[in-house]
């Protein structure tokens, strides 16, 4: 082969090598692009989960047909991750105990309106939720009424003292909260109420001024124990003794499910309080009611923005009764 042909062949080969080197994709850049796209996809997925309150993508396989709040409660009762463990494992299902409430509520800018009063009430405590409820009430400078039952553990006694020492009111919700026992007769009901009064006087030095019937004054579960007219008899006899009882005119609906959806609680209070100047709000202070605790800041903020001031229930406070004695 002559030299001109060799030089031509060499030039062609060099050109091919140059083109290949210029257009070959850089592997490190490709890895970075893929990584960025992956992270972006994870971020979008997590935002979608937070915004729509759906199951986190990482847990979807395990909670395909489960209620998110039920899963949350089970997780809270069975495990508590340390901060470093959470950092290693990445985003987990939300823990309402550590919720940054300031990020989910709008600061209040409305002064109380004359005549508008909100009475927040919490039934069935004290419980593991009590400290968080008290913390939130303190942060928002709100007082509430706790209709408690006869829980005698040392921790329960400590929480009862905390309720009183922080300026909240205790209400009587019966000692046993056992429908079959307390609703047998007016005498059986009064005996159970008196038992709780004695316990509270011995524990915190307070005898409640107010009473709430388990299930409300018109509940039908009482019929099984005392017949269809038992509530009429009980409310009449208790009223003769000068005992004031309080039902509610705003339900948070947190008793509609073992763990109600947080937004449903907020929406229920908003809709059920609309157009009312005085409201008694029913909520529950129980271990499982984590979403009640999570909803509380938004509930308080909404009511403040609507011009309500907050107060505790007293013997002569505004009352709402399903069944008139």
TrEMBL record:
Alphabetical list of SUPFAM superfamilies matching this protein: Glycoside hydrolase/deacetylase (SSF88713)
Superkingdom to which the source organism belongs: Bacteria
Output the CDD domains linked to this UniProt entry: CE4_SmPgdA_like
**Keyword annotations of the record:** Membrane, Transmembrane, Transmembrane helix
One Pfam family in the UniProt entry: Polysacc_deac_1
Domain NodB homology stretches: 116-311
What PROSITE patterns has UniProt attached to this entry?
NODB (PS51677)
User: Mind telling me which InterPro entries this protein's record contains?
Assistant: Glyco_hydro/deAcase_b/a-brl, NODB_dom, Polysacc_deacetylase_ArnD
Q: Where are the transmembrane segments?
A: 6-23
Q: What is this protein called?
A: Polysaccharide deacetylase
Instruction: Tell me which species this is from.
Output: Paenibacillus radicis (ex Xue et al. 2023)
């Amino acid at each position: 082969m002559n030299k001109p042909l060799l030089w031509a062949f060499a030039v062609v080969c060099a050109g091919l090598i140059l083109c290949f080197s210029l257009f070959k994709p850089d592997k490190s850049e490709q890895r970075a692009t893929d990584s960025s796209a992956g992270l972006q996809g994870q971020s979008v997925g997590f935002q979608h989960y937070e915004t729509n309150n759906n199951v986190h993508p990482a847990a979807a396989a395990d909670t395909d047909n489960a209620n998110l709040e039920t899963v949350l409660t089970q997780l809270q009762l069975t495990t508590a991750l340390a901060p470093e463990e959470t950092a290693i494992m990445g985003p987990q299902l939300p823990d309402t105990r550590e919720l940054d409430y300031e990020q989910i509520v709008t600061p209040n800018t409305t002064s109380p309106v004359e005549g508008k009063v909100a009475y927040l009430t919490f039934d069935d405590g004290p419980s593991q939720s009590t400290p968080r409820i008290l913390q939130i009430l303190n942060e928002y400078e709100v007082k509430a009424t706790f209709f408690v039952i006869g829980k005698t553990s040392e921790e329960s006694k400590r929480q009862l003292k905390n309720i009183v020492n922080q300026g909240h009111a205790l209400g009587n919700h019966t000692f046993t909260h056992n429908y079959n026992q307390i609703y047998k007769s007016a005498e059986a009901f009064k005996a159970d109420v008196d038992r709780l009064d004695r316990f509270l006087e011995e524990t915190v030095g307070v005898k409640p001024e107010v009473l709430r019937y388990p299930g409300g004054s018109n509940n039908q579960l009482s019929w099984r124990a005392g017949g269809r007219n038992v509530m009429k008899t009980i409310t009449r006899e208790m009223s003769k003794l000068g005992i004031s009882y309080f039902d509610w005119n705003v339900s948070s609906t947190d008793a509609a499910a073992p763990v109600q959806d947080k937004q449903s609680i907020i929406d229920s209070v908003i809709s059920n309080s609309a157009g009312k100047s005085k409201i008694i709000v029913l909520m529950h202070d129980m271990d499982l009611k984590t979403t009640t605790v999570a909803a509380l800041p938004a509930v308080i903020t909404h009511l403040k923005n609507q011009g309500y001031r907050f107060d505790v229930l007293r013997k002569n406070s505004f009352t709402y009764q399903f069944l008139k004695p």
